[in-house]
Structures
1.
Amino acid sequence: MFDVDAIRRDFPILSRTQGDHPLVYLDSGNTSQKPQAVIDALSEHYSRHNANVARAMHLLGAEATEAYEGARSAVAGFIGAARPEEVVFTKNASEALNLAANTLGAGLQPGDEVVISVMEHHSNIVPWQLVCERTGATLRWFDVTDDGRLDLESAERDHLINERTKIVSLTWVSNVVGTRNPITEIAAKAHEVGANVVVDASQAVPHQATFVQSLGADLMAFTGHKMLGPTGIGVLWGRYDLLASLPPFLGGGEMIEVVEMGHSTYAAPPYRFEAGTPPIAQAVGLGAAVKYLEGVGMDAVEAHDHEITAYALDKLQAIDGLTILGPREAVERGSALSFNLDGVHPHDVMQVLDSRGVAIRGGHHCARPLHKRLGHQSSTRASSYLYTTTAEIDALADALVHTRNYFAPRFGG
């Protein structure tokens, strides 16, 4: 039995109030809140086990290394990796995607093609732009339909994935419109022409059971702070044979095997990609977050997300003057829900809602090309998670009606 009230008691921040209003936190797509178990894990590490990993041979160093590598094993198990060494810790998903672009893209040449989509987060656009500019490769992309799904028919008609395609890099779940993309099917097409597949799973891994060995990805990036973990920790998962074939991304301590003045050799994965002191405490916190999510059960998390998303779609579509971006039914979509109120700027919506204790996000959500394609300069986004209640969605809907009515005189309403 999924008990959202019991879950909420594990999150100290959710008991906060804002003036006369209880906090309604609907910005989990931006960053999730943290359960007490994660807060305690960070405190315990810093107060009793703090030391650098690998280098220190004393007791604290051994304890820190054990905790750090234990977190790697926990993450590997959580996503169904074949072995812990397939998990590379980074500081966030953006760094993981940059790592993928700069290593996998190192062998690109003029005439090669990289395929992304219009719905990507900037972190999965800009790195590929940079590597294509540097190598002479061509960047191409999936368009989207008017309802915010990948335009697979146009892609097939235009032979978007073809014998020149070397890399396909796509989001699994859109951070704006919530669309869940058919990664496995697209990956199969990419592999038929010998291309590698990179997946931005930042909005997927926190919300659904993930089994990378059957997903079809060759590399997959996600971040800890959206899945109850601390900020400052991200993950790049990769097939071990592929990771072992890639060059280093950053140079420094611990990523080396032997250093001479004329040349160096490099450590095996994952350490080849973890130069310098890694995010040790953050990894420990992420390990605690993984344990918490496993205790709840990812199938239960996904079912709750689906229920809340369906409820929110129904509530918001009943508001006159509100336009939802992307899929309007809770089918093959995540919990990110973006919308606009006619004639009201998203920043104004965000500010008025904040005055009523409702925390949402306004802007282009690091996805400007998608907003442009859908005909919107920006949008307001509400994003729920395992601790979100239907009462909070009701509070959101009431606050939006209040906001619309507040601004209506200015626009002739």
Note: The two ends are 45 Å apart (CA to CA).
2.
Amino acid sequence: MASLDDLKTLLGLATDDTSQDSVLALILKNTDLQLRFKLALSVGEQVPNELAFIPIEVAVRRYNRLKNEGMTSYTQEGESITFNSNDFDDFQADIDDWRKRHSHGVLTTVDPYRKRGV
């Protein structure tokens, strides 16, 4: 799991400033849980090292969107910001590639003698 200090560094926050630690830790935890779900990892499995960059990148996006949750765009005094509807969209190709390389495949067989209902 990404560290709190790494997230603070990316956000430009001082690592010794603990005023937002609970919010940042919750963002990291939820992001990690969502990625684990997307990867279909079981309870004891960790996010693979090849994809360890995703939770921290998504956490930065989620932190930057605080107080703008649910919005797809935000405009103020000529500045416009557009948010993805899913924070993992930009990483879906990476997730799909990892799943392809690490899947054990599914074998489907067909019984040629099975009667089909008409």
Note: Helices lie at 4-11, 21-38, 53-64, 92-102.
